[in-house]
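Changelog-adjacent note: as of this version, every example in the card shows the full chain rather than a window. The one below runs 236 residues end to end.
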Amino acid sequence: MTETFSFTATIQSSWDLVKKHLKFLLLSTAASAVILLVLQELQNLTEERGILSILAMVLSTVVGIAVSLGWSQVILKLIRHGKTTWHDFQTDTKIWVHYFLARVMYGIVSLISVTIAAVRVFMLIFLSIYSVPFLIIGSIAFIFGLSLFAWLLTRYIFISFVAIDHPNINGWKLLKESAKITKGNMWRLFGFLLMVTLINIIGLLLFIVGLLVTVPVTMIATAHVYDHLKKSKHAE
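Full-length structure tokens:
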């Protein structure tokens, strides 16, 4: 990442782009939120109802993938061409499988990292182990697990954008390509993740509706960073 690339300037340019396409982005974000909330409610209603529960989970997964990739395609077209349409939410279904597999692999390792981090809590609450050696081991496990989770989150932040740009590569290669783009910029990207998370927390505190603005801003900013790093890697 070049020294002249500024995250704050990226947020500002992303906000300018959101203002230019405010109506489209607000409606898109609201529609996506409604769809996901309806699917969540459907899962709640069909919980412990056998086949209905499974079908609701599958439907939620498929629609979630479609929405995630649709947004990635829309955002990339917006920053690259300055315009986008509702039609751009439609993505090639063959990408869905590759993206799903990449998310599953990523999810498994993330779950392992969270489990490692939970060792200390497990020791204290469920095993009632308060001895110094176990507390030290638990603390080390907590720090390691949390660090691994943060590393994974940063390393594979661009999976959905990579899937749009490379529709023919499989799930494993999607992860490798995302890792390739983030290589050498992990600390700055982690700082960027903290910044966009803080922005969305502020949006959440503003009676939740603030997310209608902060979510598009942070998604566009993330796409800007992705595009910049991708071009930098190709220039090397």
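Structural remarks: The chain has ten helices and no strands.
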